[in-house]
């Protein structure tokens, strides 16, 4: 069944309006979630910078700091931080 030109125009207009609404919704959600995303990334950046500073001391201190950082991340941070932040609820 062929559609007329006016039906095609109406359908195309409806699709662009729907895409615009989706884009606006994604933009609003990213605006609200942005601080949480930045906080999560910065938490790992702080650990990375600490290990980078220890790397200037030598290979053995770097290995020890990396192991301690991994242990703290797996045991302490994964249990304590979610329970004390807004994401734990």
Task: Record the SSE blueprint.
Elements: H1 5-55, H2 59-84
Helix pairs in contact: 1-2
Give a written overview of the molecule:
The structure is a single chain. The protein is mostly helical. The protein has one domain (5-88). The chain contains two helices and no strands. The chain is elongated and about 75 Å long. The termini are far apart.
Key descriptive features of the protein:
89 residues, 87% helix, 0% strand
Low-confidence runs: none
Residue fraction in strands: under 5%
Mean pLDDT: 77
- In total, the number of strands is 0
Helix fraction, binned, reads over 70%
When the domains are counted, the total is: 1
> Radius of gyration over alpha carbons?
25 Å
Termini gap: 53 Å
Tally of individual helices: 2
Shape: elongated
Order of helical and strand elements: HH
- The helix-and-strand class reads mainly alpha
Largest sheet: none
Kindly summarize this structure in a few lines.
The chain has 89 residues and is mostly helical. Helix content is 87%, strand content 0%.
């Amino acid at each position: 069944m062929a559609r007329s030109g006016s039906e095609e125009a109406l359908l195309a207009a409806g699709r662009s309006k729907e895409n615009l609404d989706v884009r606006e919704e994604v933009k609003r959600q990213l605006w609200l979630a942005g601080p949480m995303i930045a906080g999560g990334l910065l938490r790992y950046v702080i650990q990375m910078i600490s290990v980078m500073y220890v790397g200037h001391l030598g290979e053995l201190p770097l290995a020890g700091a990396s192991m301690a950082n991994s242990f703290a991340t797996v045991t302490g941070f994964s249990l304590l931080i979610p329970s004390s932040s807004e994401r734990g609820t």
